Amino acid sequence: MREYVITTDNNADLPDSFYEKHGIGCTWFSYTMEGKHYSHENFMPVGEFYRKMREGSMPTTAQVNPAEVRNLFEPYLKEGKDILHIAFSSGLSGTYNSCRIAAEELKEEYPERKIIVKDSLAASLGQGLLVYLAQKRKESGEDMEAVADWVENNRKHIVHLFTVDDLNHLYRGGRVSRTTAVLGGMLNIKPILHVDDAGKLIPIGKVRGRKKSLLELVDQMDKKIGSYREKCDTIFISHGDCLKEAEYLASKVKEKYSIKTVLINHVGAVIGAHSGPGTMALFFVGDVR
Question: Residue 133's domain spans which residues?
Answer without folding.
Answer: 4-154
